[in-house]
From TrEMBL:
InterPro entries: RpiB_LacA_LacB, RpiB_LacA_LacB_sf. Pfam families: LacAB_rpiB. Gene3D superfamilies: Sugar-phosphate isomerase, RpiB/LacA/LacB (3.40.1400.10). It is an enzyme of class 5 (isomerase). Belongs to the LacAB/RpiB family. Its EC number is 5.3.1.26, 5.3.1.6. GO terms for biological process: lactose metabolic process. This is Galactose-6-phosphate isomerase. GO terms for molecular function: galactose-6-phosphate isomerase activity; ribose-5-phosphate isomerase activity. It comes from the Bacteria. Keywords: Isomerase, Lactose metabolism. It comes from Streptococcus hyointestinalis.
Length: 160
């Protein structure tokens, strides 16, 4: 497993907590302060390009980095504030980036959430009776990405 992480100044405490816990990742913001939109862009791009399997993003609320990272195709960034949502974001949505807020989530909770996130596999259904629902829903979301990209490009061209 290859992972990347980054944080703006308000998320550094959570990022540093994960690094001390032995989570093996590339620290994008190891030696520099980066604005939330830049770190969200860099991690989102790296995941979209397939350079890493997972990403971790941290800013004040987690929302800013989440919004930017999710602009990239193939990125499923989950903004989470609990172990349960971190687990379900992997199990149900096959999220590949976990975003957290340094002013919302404690370092203790961040460690637990990160462990739950990387140890949870994508599920193939909610129950034995419906084993393929989540897989087909995930594929449907993937199939929407080119249409969303085209729509966004057409809107951009109209506004120019």
């Amino acid at each position: 497993m290859k992972a990347i992480l980054g944080a703006d100044p308000l998320g550094i405490t959570l990022k540093d907590t994960l690094l001390r816990e032995g989570v093996e990742v590339y620290d994008l913001t190891e030696d520099r302060e980066v604005d939330y939109y830049s770190v969200g862009f860099e991690v989102g791009k790296a995941i979209s390009e397939g350079q890493y399997d997972y990403g971790f993003l941290f800013c004040g609320t987690g929302m800013g980095v989440n919004l930017v990272a999710n602009k990239f195709n193939g990125v499923y960034c989950a903004l989470c504030e609990s172990i349960e949502t971190a687990t379900l974001s992997r199990k149900i949505n096959n999220a590949n980036i976990l975003a957290m807020g340094g002013i919302v989530v404690t370092p203790y909770m961040a460690k637990k959430m990160a462990r739950a996130f990387i140890s949870t596999e994508f599920s193939y259904g909610f129950s034995e009776a419906d084993p393929e629902f989540l897989q087909s829903a995930y594929k449907a979301v993937q199939n929407l990405e080119p249409d969303i990209l085209t729509f966004n490009q057409e809107r951009k061209n109209k506004s120019i």
